[in-house]
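Problem 12. The chain below contains 526 residues. Write out its predicted structure in token notation.
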Amino acid sequence: MSKVKLYDTTLRDGSQGEGISYSVSDKMLIAKELDLLGIHYVEGGWPGSNPKDMEFYLKMAKTPLKNAKLTAFSMTRRLNTQAKLDPNISSLVKSKVKIITIVGKTWDLHVKDVLKTTLDENISMISDTINYLSSLGLTVFYDAEHFFDAYKSNKVYALKTLFTAQSAGAKAICLCDTNGGALTSEIFQVISEVRPKINVNLGIHCHNDSDLAVANSLAAVEAGVDMVQGTINGIGERCGNADLIPVIANLKLKMGINCISDEKLKELTYVSHYISEISNMKQLTNQPYVGTSSFAHKGGMHINAIMKNPKTYEHIDPTLVGNNRRILVSELAGKTGMLIRAKDMQLDLSKNDPKTKKILQLVQKLEHQGYHFEAAEASFELLLRRTLKKYAKFFELEGFRVVIEKLSDKKITTEAVIKLKVGKKNEHAVAMGDGPVNALDNALRKALKDFYPTLAKMHLSDFKVRVLDEKTGTAAKVRVLIQSQDEADSWNTIGVSENIIEASWQALLDSVEYKLLKDQKNKRTQ
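Solution.
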């Protein structure tokens, strides 16, 4: 099979995932990214279900996609109503979309228990809806809801619904594992039986309730379907949908199916992260192909082998999907990881150098105390430079004080006082904040602003605290991870202490010092 069509339903089925809420602007941005990626069909929503989706379609009519075809979703007409008189069907026509996807019941259980009607009436609903929309010159795709459950329950009736859709004018029929409960072998077997009976394009739509949605989608392709539905990053109701990111990568790189071009394939990582950001969802670090950990190597044996031949521990070249290899630094990585990081920093360090052994022992000691340098590479670079005496302090702390005050029913206030020395000049700054870390951050910036103006261009973007040993209660050590960013980059720093303020200060200090070090290096290269 040389070509498989990709049908994205991030904006409809994906938006039904818990915590997802797209504005019209969000939907338009995502649709345009999917268009650029090379997706063939973009399902924008259900225009009859809410005003927002209708607004999206009307705006998209004025700024149409360049490559992808926009589709609209709805269900078969209502009971005992003509399709031309059904408000949901009318909304499809008003949306100005040329391709319509209609979902219909194929499982006799749903017809009887959900629709509360006869099997014959359901057949009429499918036929009437598709016939009417086709008569208007619209292209109709039919989603056979719960098809695999239906096929096991009543094979004859399930197939009858497909034949009805085909006869009524559907140009594609998509078999849906709506409950996400089918096994991969079942998907393959059923499609192998159904494919010869269907004369139009056949698609697959899998949910991930058994963690098999991607595998089931690929098996469906092997069994003969030529359209795969899914969502970016697998977002969707309950456990989500088939994740189109690994689906695309596997089709292209493992199955030799040219679903998108080589150049578009390199955009996978960017698109995945971009849509996570718009969706306000945390990107999974271990997401296949595009996660930050997908090609990260930590074990010393792995790192040693990777540097000799990447194929030893990487199933593909990460650059094919726009990702990159990362060598992590930890107590497990041995000398190789540090040597690679040192080379990246243009620091002179060799395997047999006594300093290398010293740094390794220091890293192992600190990680035993609770540090986690693979998650805080900026702190590791500072540690390496300080140990090798390749680092000059930008300022020296003389002391700080944090005061938290709660008066009666008033809001808690936090004030930080900081004293430091820049060169030979002493600085003393006081600042308020929403909490102790925010107050310290504000005071530190205030003290340094006249010396290092670029600090105004950085901010803290994430702050995480983890208790390392819950058994010791309030005396437990805590690990603080801070993510910071400026207009060009983001970086992570770490602090560990029994005192959360001290741990936070360590991470905050490294964050600011790394920003200044980065600016210093950039000036040298200009």
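Discussion. The chain has a mean pLDDT of 89. Students who got a different answer should revisit the alignment rule from Section 12.3.
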